[in-house]
C-alpha cells in the first residue's frame, strides 16, 4: 500500500510538471474573452490578444 501511494504521488507531480512546462502563465495572468471584439484581454496588465483560443503565454512586461 505505501508503494502504491508513492507511485500515485510521483505521477501527480510528474503531471503537474509536464503541464506547467507548456505555459508561461502565472497567478497574475487572468485572461477574459471579449467575444464581440474577437479578442482576449488580460485583467491584470491590460494586454490584448486577437483570436478565438485562450492565450498560453504571459504578456506582462518584466519589471
Low-pLDDT regions: none
Query: Helical region count?
Result: 1
End-to-end span in angstroms?
48 Å
**Helicity range of the residues?**
25-40%
Order of helices and strands: HEEE
Mean pLDDT: 83
**Rg on CA atoms, Å:** 17 Å
Q: What shape does the CA trace take?
A: elongated
Percentage beta strand: 15-25%
User: What structural class is derived from the secondary structure elements?
Assistant: alpha+beta
Q: What is the β-strand count?
A: 3
Q: How are the strands ordered across the major sheet?
A: 1-2-3
Sheet with the most strands? 3 strands, antiparallel
Index terms:
about 60 residues, alpha+beta, 3 strands, about 30% helix, elongated
Description:
- The protein is elongated.
- A hairpin with a 4-residue loop joins strand 1 and strand 2.
- The protein has a three-stranded antiparallel beta sheet, with no helix packed on it.
- The protein starts with a helix and ends in a 13-residue tail after the last strand.
- Helices cover 32% and strands 17% of the residues.
- It has one helix at residues 2-21, and strands at residues 31-34, 39-42, 48-50.
- The protein is built from one helix and three strands; from the N terminus they run H-E-E-E.
Summed up, what is this model?
This protein has one helix and three strands. It is α+β, with helices and mostly antiparallel strands and 63 residues long.
Topology:
Elements: H1 2-21, E1 31-34, E2 39-42, E3 48-50
Antiparallel strand pairs: 1-2, 2-3
